[in-house]
């Protein structure tokens, strides 16, 4: 074992921006985002893959950032909670809202209290609704089964998932009605 | 909760990976999906000096459906295997079982081959490999070899892979025509480690069972296949005789398994549970068999 650890230049695209930092091989992706890139929206709970707070999207698919090394994330596209709102991505916010449908739903339905687990829920649910835009109550529960919340008792989180599906559909309808967001 | 320092190797080919594994010997560990390995590293239950990260290795992410078997490469994520329509058509058990592996976020990263090489008694895919009479393909600088599932699992979390070998793929054997499968497990929270689980394959010809086998999750130290032929063969799925045979099968399973007690459940509870799960999966496979007629 060496005293000075070798540093690796890691380049990833985070929320559409290419970012590079020199880090040791053992740097977890979660710590890379928080410490090296100063994106502290991703929260670190259990650090062994149980709680889901650190969930980010890797090439659009939710993954535990505490169970990946930054060096393994090279050349991948990462979306963190910071990338969900104020989106320039027309699929997320076709009419230019600053909160994504999932964020708005969590706010409307009181889907959080302390907010520690929320970034993991938001990323997980965002990806889930892409796959299944009209979940049932049962499916919504299943979708969030990998994320722990110690405040809410989950009832309002389930409501938020269902409401997020509605908001997504509403926004898509509005965008279509206004000619895809083109000025009238 | 941070891993100890290690040297990161990023081979691009199987040959390079095998060469590195040969050089680093006992100080090395293969990193694929890392969904079991990284928690172990984070908690410093292990501190290998070298990690051989195979995520950049070419040609390991294929699912190939052949006449005899479904071959799954070492970089196929659980989610990809569950999604594969070709694999589902050839061997529905793969999707039935894979959807019980942890949570979606874990399935998106974790690999099927990695989970088999990890050999956790609570793992679903080692049990599935056994039920499918599967084979592990291993490569080292010394050559390639195939290891049948019976020779692969040496104990809990222990396999007969040599320290310099890379498991490049596994082959799940396909079943004869008329075979129906089902898989169920019970956990405190969906996606958590199962208290007990069971998969079955039931082959029906001319309306009666000709072959039946089961394998288990969390109630045996190593994957173990129980031949249920002696109690189920000759019965017609769904008939009165079938009901009696299923009772006998559940009893055979309770006699076969050797569950351990822990904080989550006692040995007796797990034994009772796996018997009940056996009853349910057998009835599910019977329903599928009746649907065939």
Largest sheet of chain A: 5 strands, mixed
Name the chain pair with the biggest interface and residue counts per chain.
A-B, 32 and 32 residues
- What's the arrangement of strands in the largest beta sheet of chain A? 2-1-5-3-4
User: CATH superfamily assignment of the largest domain in chain B?
Assistant: CO dehydrogenase flavoprotein, C-terminal domain
Helix content of chain B: 25-40%
Q: Give the terminus-to-terminus CA distance of chain A.
A: 66 Å
Could you state the CATH homologous superfamily of the largest domain in chain A?
A: Beta-grasp domain
Instruction: Compute the number of helices of chain A.
Output: 5
- The CATH topology label of the largest domain in chain A is Ubiquitin-like (UB roll)
GO molecular function (chain A): 2 iron, 2 sulfur cluster binding; metal ion binding; oxidoreductase activity
InterPro entries (chain A): 2Fe-2S-bd (IPR002888), 2Fe-2S-bd_dom_sf (IPR036884), 2Fe-2S_ferredoxin-like_sf (IPR036010), 2Fe-2S_ferredoxin-type (IPR001041), 2Fe2S_fd_BS (IPR006058), Beta-grasp_dom_sf (IPR012675), Diverse_Oxidoreductases (IPR051452)
Pathway (chain A): Alkaloid degradation; nicotine degradation
Protein name (chain A): Carbon-monoxide dehydrogenase small subunit
Quick structural overview:
The complex is a heterodimer of chains A (184) and B (293). Chain A has 184 residues and is α+β, with helices and mostly antiparallel strands.
What topology emerges from the helices and strands here?
The complex is a heterodimer of chains A (184) and B (293).
Chain A (H helix, E strand, L loop, with lengths): L6 E8 L2 E8 L4 H8 L18 E4 L2 E4 L12 E3 L21 H8 L9 H14 L5 H7 L11 H23 L7
Parallel strand pairs in A: 1-5
Antiparallel strand pairs in A: 1-2, 3-4, 3-5
Chain B lengths: L6 E3 L4 H11 L3 E4 L5 H6 L7 E4 L9 E3 L3 E5 L4 H6 L1 H6 L1 H7 L5 H4 L4 H7 L5 H8 L3 E6 L2 E6 H4 E3 L2 E2 L6 E8 L5 E8 L9 E10 L2 E10 L7 E3 L1 H4 L7 H17 L10 H26 L1
Parallel strand pairs in B: 1-3, 2-3
Antiparallel strand pairs in B: 4-5, 5-10, 6-7, 6-10, 8-9, 11-12, 12-13, 13-14
């Amino acid at each position: 074992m060496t005293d000075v650890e070798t540093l690796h230049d890691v380049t990833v695209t985070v929320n559409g921006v290419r970012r590079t930092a020199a880090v040791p091989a053992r740097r977890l992706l979660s710590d890379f985002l928080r410490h090296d890139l100063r994106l502290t929206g991703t929260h670190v709970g259990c650090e062994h893959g149980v709680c889901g707070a650190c969930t980010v999207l890797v090439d659009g698919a939710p993954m535990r950032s505490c169970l990946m090394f930054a060096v393994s994330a090279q050349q991948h596209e990462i979306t963190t909670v910071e990338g969900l709102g104020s989106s320039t991505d027309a699929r997320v916010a076709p009419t230019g809202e600053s909160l994504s449908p999932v964020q708005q739903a969590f706010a409307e339905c009181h889907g959080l209290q302390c907010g520690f687990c929320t970034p993991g829920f938001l990323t997980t649910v965002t990806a889930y609704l892409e796959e299944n835009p009209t979940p049932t109550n049962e499916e919504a529960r299943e979708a969030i089964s990998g994320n722990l919340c110690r405040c809410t008792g989950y009832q309002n989180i389930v409501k938020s998932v269902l409401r997020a599906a509605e908001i997504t559909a509403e926004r898509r309808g509005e965008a279509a009605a206004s000619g895809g967001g083109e000025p009238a | 909760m941070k891993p100890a320092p290690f040297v990161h190797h990023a081979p691009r080919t199987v040959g390079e990976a095998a060469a590195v594994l040969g050089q680093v010997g006992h100080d090395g560990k293969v990193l694929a999906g890392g969904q079991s390995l990284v928690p172990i590293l984070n908690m410093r239950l292990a501190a290998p000096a070298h990690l051989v990260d195979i995520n950049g290795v070419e040609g390991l992410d294929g699912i190939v459906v052949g006449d005899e078997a479904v071959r799954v490469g070492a970089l196929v994520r659980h989610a990809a295997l569950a999604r594969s329509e070709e694999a589902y058509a050839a061997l529905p058990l793969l999707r039935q079982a894979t959807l019980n592996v942890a949570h979606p976020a874990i399935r998106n990263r974790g690999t099927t081959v990695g989970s088999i090489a990890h050999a956790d008694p609570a793992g679903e895919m080692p049990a599935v490999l056994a039920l499918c009479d599967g084979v592990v393909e291993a490569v080292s600088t010394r050559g390639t070899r195939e290891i049948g599932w019976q020779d692969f699992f040496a104990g809990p979390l222990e396999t007969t892979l040599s320290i310099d070998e890379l498991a490049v793929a596994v082959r799940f054997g396909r079943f004869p025509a008329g075979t129906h499968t089902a898989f169920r497990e019970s956990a405190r929270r969906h996606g958590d480690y199962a208290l007990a689980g069971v998969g079955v394959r039931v082959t029906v010809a001319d309306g009666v069972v000709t072959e039946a086998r089961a394998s288990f999750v969390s109630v045996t130290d190593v994957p173990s296949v129980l031949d249920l032929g002696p109690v189920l063969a000759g019965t017609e799925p769904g008939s009165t005789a079938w009901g009696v045979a299923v009772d006998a099968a559940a009893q055979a399973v309770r006699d076969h398994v050797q569950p351990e007690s822990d904080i989550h459940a006692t040995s007796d509870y797990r034994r009772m549970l796996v018997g009940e799960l056996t009853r349910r999966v057998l009835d599910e496979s019977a329903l599928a068999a009746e649907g065939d007629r």
